Amino acid sequence: MKREILKMNLQSLMKLIEFLLAIGSILGLLGLIVGLFWLILMGSRHRDNALFFIFICLLLLIVCGWNTGLRYFRINI
Fold first, then answer.
1. Do 68 and 25 form a contact (C-beta atoms < 8 A)?
2. Which has fewest Cβ within 10 Å: 45, 56, 61, 63?
């Protein structure tokens, strides 16, 4: 009985982790696109903020994976 409950809890925890990685991947991709537009379209006054934003999005993509969210949500490009 306890093993079944533990197994169910581990499975739900794994699904949650997979979902969070997929969300992080999608947010990283979208953030990278927005950051690049921000870097190109905004003036030099906002350049440091845009580069920091792009750096954070790249870290998110490194941790979560490039196409994890695309596979999880079945987005075809």
1. yes
2. 45
- Please provide the average confidence, as pLDDT, over all residues in the chain: 89
pLDDT tens, position by position, 11-31: 888 999 999 999 999 999 999
Residue 28: partners with Cβ closer than 8 Å, 6 or more residues away: 57, 58, 60, 61, 64
In terms of C-beta density within 10 A (0-12 exposed, 13-18 middle, 19 or more buried), how is residue 25 classed?
buried
With beta carbons less than 8 A apart as the criterion, state whether 21 and 68 touch.
Answer: yes
Q: Cα Rg for the chain, rounded, in angstroms? A: 17
